[in-house]
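Support request from a user on the community tier.

User writes: "When I paste my structure tokens into the form, the page sometimes reloads and wipes my input. The last time it worked, I copied everything first. Here is what I submitted, just in case something in the input itself triggers the reload:"
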């Protein structure tokens, strides 16, 4: 006699256990910390790059710097392969 599982998912992949992976928890914590960072750093700051002076929220300046750093890092990592 053969038994059929009826196409059900394996226990480790279904239900709430499948939603709470370490990667998803890490991303959720980083997203929460990012939101806290943004709400805590809304004060405007002056930024001067060579000649022009720009006024923007502190979080935006730091975020822009982080994005530029990530793009440069990704470029050099990709170039190495």
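"...and here is what came back when it finally went through:"
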């Amino acid at each position: 006699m053969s038994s059929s599982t009826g196409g059900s998912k394996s226990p480790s992949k279904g239900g709430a256990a499948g939603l709470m992976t370490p990667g998803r928890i890490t991303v959720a914590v980083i997203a929460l910390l990012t939101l806290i960072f943004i709400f805590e750093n809304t004060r405007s700051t002056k930024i001067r790059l060579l000649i022009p002076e720009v006024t923007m929220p502190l979080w935006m300046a730091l975020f822009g710097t982080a994005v530029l750093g990530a793009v440069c890092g990704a470029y050099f990592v990709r170039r190495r392969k």
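Agent notes: The reload is a front-end session timeout and is unrelated to the input. The chain has a mean pLDDT of 80. The first helix runs from residue 15 to 19. Escalated to web team.
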